[in-house]
Amino acid sequence: MSERTRWQKIARRIRVPLGFIFAGVFLWLARPTWHTMLGSLLLVVPGVWLRAYAAGYVRKNAELTRTGPYAYTRNPLYLGSMMIAFGFAWAAASWIILIALAALFAAIYLPTIRSEEAYLREHFAGFDEYAKHVPRLLPRLTPAPTDGGSGRFSSERYLHHREYNACMGAIAIYAALAARLLFLKR
Question: What are the φ/ψ torsions at residue 107 (nearest 5 degrees)?
């Protein structure tokens, strides 16, 4: 197993637990203001929406999803996560958090995305053609043409993927930042 493949496996396994650890560090380093929290909504709300929208389309490991947000970017769930994370970095008003987030995303999410793409390439014959037309992360302005795929948003898929947790998590982080602002002034 190559070193890169080994790190991809490790990155996939540690990304969620590392997120919880980072949340604790985040709250410790955060220096929010009401203005930074309000401004952060410009990234957090669309990020939560994008994750919810994407979760209603994707059928993980069952098909290559090419419709909905997947016609604009191959990784709308990760893009949504990045928007949420960088929105909260804005809310925290901390350059340290911003730099740490950028490093974590590069070290964890890029190998994870590459690993998932290798899986998709191996299991779905149309992946390479899809990848030619749809960018890995930053979205196209118009949807890529599809080969007749007619996927639709499914609230059942959204619920199955428990994407409502992203919204509840965002609310909890805002509550923690507000509590920090109100009760733990430095």
Answer: -80, -30
